[in-house]
Write a structure and sequence with these properties.
Helix content is 36%, strand content 25%. The chain has a domain of 129 residues: P-loop containing nucleotide triphosphate hydrolases (Rossmann fold), CATH 3.40.50. The chain is of the alpha/beta class. Helix 3 crosses helix 4 and helix 3 packs across helix 5. This is ABC transporter related protein. One of its GO terms (molecular function) is ATP hydrolysis activity. It comes from Desulforamulus reducens (strain ATCC BAA-1160 / DSM 100696 / MI-1).
């Protein structure tokens, strides 16, 4: 069996300007009448620029960068959620991602039904979902609300259920974006323990965070992003120093 790995060569990713264009007919007509059509034109966003990176089994990699530097886009690209514009992307292994927790819920369906909806979206089989259903229900700890429609849930309850589903099954490659707030203090203790268990089991971890202490505890390697480019790739302590220097942050 081939060991899991991530290989990226000269990868570029653009966000199409269509995603940012004004969808209001009133505003569009106003721009035409006032002659602002060309002035307000929005260009495609070059979100990731010439990314070259190789991650092999056993590595724990921390991603550093200010908001908008490219960390989250990189993770979504590695999870194959975003198509690349050019270059080569090879991901070998079973990928599990921990971000976009609100994705895949059907508001009118019950929490129990949404275990299957979201699980299928995550690529889990119906058979496996049936096997882990009760474990997910127990971990989310929503009581009778598990059989109520999602639209009756508070934001915290939705996050707890989504977290329970998303972390029920580990993977060879774990992609995690920031620390997840998942409800009250008691639940957070369970959530943090589960994340650490998944990290321990995963053969590759890529973690994006602003928590330098957590990064230096968990990761050995650090990759610093700045304006969509990798400006440093090396030992995690040096990566933190580079991040601070690039962003003008004092020691």
């Amino acid at each position: 069996m081939t060991s899991p790995y991530i290989l990226l060569e000269n990868v570029n990713l653009h966000y199409s300007s269509v995603a940012f264009k004004e969808r209001s007919l009133k505003t569009l007509l106003g721009n035409i009448l006032t002659g602002n059509k060309k002035k307000n034109a929005v260009q495609d966003v070059h979100a990731l620029k010439n990314i070259n990176l190789e991650v092999r089994a056993g590595e724990r990699v921390g991603l550093l960068g200010h908001n908008g530097a490219g960390k989250s886009t990189f993770l979504k690209m590695a999870a194959d959620l975003y198509p690349i514009s050019s270059g080569r992307r090879i991901i070998k292994g079973n990928v599990r991602s921990l971000f976009d927790l609100s994705l895949g819920f059907e508001p009118d369906a019950t929490g129990r039904e949404n275990i299957f909806y979201r699980g299928l979206l995550l690529g889990l089989s119906p058979r496996l979902l049936r096997e882990i259903e009760e474990e997910v229900v127990a971990f989310a700890d929503l009581g009778e609300f598990i059989d109520y429609p999602i639209k009756t849930y508070s934001a915290g309850m939705q996050v707890r259920l989504a977290f329970a589903i998303s972390t029920a099954v580990g993977g060879d490659i774990m992609l995690i974006d920031e620390v997840i707030g998942a409800g009250d203090a008691r639940f957070m203790v369970k959530a943090k323990k589960r994340i650490l268990d998944l990290v321990e089991q995963a053969k590759i971890l890529v973690l994006a965070s602003h928590d330098f202490s957590a990064l230096q505890t968990i990761c050995q390697r650090g990759v610093v992003f700045h304006r969509g480019e990798i400006v440093f790739d090396g030992e995690i302590t040096e990566a933190v120093k580079t991040y601070k220097r690039v962003n003008g942050i004092g020691a």
